[in-house]
Write a structure and sequence with these properties.
Protein name (chains A, B): Dihydrofolate reductase family protein
Number of strands of chain A: 9
Shape of chain A: globular
InterPro entries (chains A, B): DHFR-like_dom_sf (IPR024072), RibDG_C (IPR002734), Riboflavin_Biosynth_HTPR (IPR050765)
CATH class of chain A: Alpha Beta
Helix content of chain A: 10-25%
Pfam families (chains A, B): RibD_C
CATH architecture of chain A: 3-Layer(aba) Sandwich
Strand content of chain A: 15-25%
Number of helices of chain A: 6
Largest sheet of chain A: 9 strands, mixed
Oligomer: homodimer
CATH superfamily of chain A: Dihydrofolate Reductase, subunit A
Largest interface: A-B, 26 and 26 residues
Chain lengths: 214, 214
């Protein structure tokens, strides 16, 4: 039962991008950042519901598989659910599709008015709560029933949990691109490595996978 | 004949550290940042004049060898020579020892009063000039006589040359540590990769070597 963070970041450390628009809510840069991940067979099956069997099956795919394995609950920020983009739409159900890839309880951190949970197809239920990282983690650990809890993001939420010392495993997939702007994962994390062992592996795609494990 | 930059940076992108004192001009963090490089046989021979044959001979050492190979002239900032730390000492000869590892002409960029060149043992001569990156590079290319020119650093100088599009090859050795402060190499370099092919290799030490080549 571990608390895990998995994020895609650029070589200059940005975990989010700065070119989002309502028409292109992920932005162009996001595609560049996650291209190798999106190309994996696991992402295509799990997120795009593509049963063709196409997609890469190398190092990136092994991390994509691990991303989804053994997760019993997820915590994400309001921005990752899309509440910041659609704050006044009580019917907004997130931009993860009718059958989101999580297939677990997902706890969405928000300071806005309470919302009822949303049950989606495939096993995902979104719960909304205003809570500290510790409180949210308690809820998620209970829901995970012995499995791992993933802090899904975005970068600010992941950093809050890292700074609070709540994360057992941090995996970053570093794309060899420079975004020059966005939210930095690494701000205010001096010496983070001292509590972890760190391993690094380069994928065929050129993505560098760095893993911090307690 | 290429213009090259080689730098040691932290995972959070800092190429210089923030804990220098007159007593410890490199600082504690610097040791952590360059530990794997200092452990190489090449560094021990070339910089420490240690002829014992000790030191690592793996991936890090191959980059250390390449660091010194085929360089005909070097450009560095005033800080890397130590002028910022000893601005009023006309007899300051840099903190690279009596026999500096460069063994080529070294052009030190400074806006302070002109200084005469300093000829050191082993083939290194320090020249001081107030010049744009383009002007300094012209001088260095002439002095290099067909060999490579290395932009030695610090981070701000390296970034100036990268931003000006003057660098053919950038190699960064990324230590899996978070410094949380210092000077960032990657600021204002959005899209740098578009003019280069990028390769990545992980050393036995855990250092990730990323190379941008035109």
């Amino acid at each position: 039962m571990a608390v895990r963070v998995d994020l895609n970041i650029s070589l200059d450390g940005f975990a989010t991008t700065a070119d989002q628009t309502p028409e292109n809510p992920m932005g162009e840069d996001w595609s560049r950042l996650v291209a190798a991940y999106i190309a994996t067979r696991t992402f295509r099956e799990r997120v795009l519901h593509d049963a063709s069997g196409e997609g890469t099956t190398g190092v990136d795919d092994s991390y994509a598989k691990a991303y989804f394995a053994e997760v019993g609950a997820e915590i994400m920020g309001a921005g990752m659910f899309g509440l910041h983009s659609f704050p006044d739409d009580p019917d907004w159900r997130g931009w993860w599709g009718d059958e989101p890839p999580f297939r677990t309880p997902v706890f969405v951190l928000t300071h806005t008015a309470p919302r009822p949970p949303i049950e989606m197809a495939g096993g995902t239920t979104f719960h909304f709560l205003s809570a500290t990282p510790e409180e949210a983690l308690d809820r998620a650990l209970e829901a995970a029933d012995g499995k791992d809890v993933r802090i899904g993001g975005g970068a600010t939420v992941a950093r809050d949990f890292l700074k609070a010392g709540l994360v057992d495993q941090l995996h970053v997939a570093i794309a060899p691109i420079l975004l020059g702007g966005g939210i930095r994962l690494w701000d205010d994390l001096r010496g983070l490595e001292s509590g972890y062992s760190v391993t690094t592996e380069v994928a065929e795609s050129g993505i560098t996978h760095v893993t911090f494990r307690r």
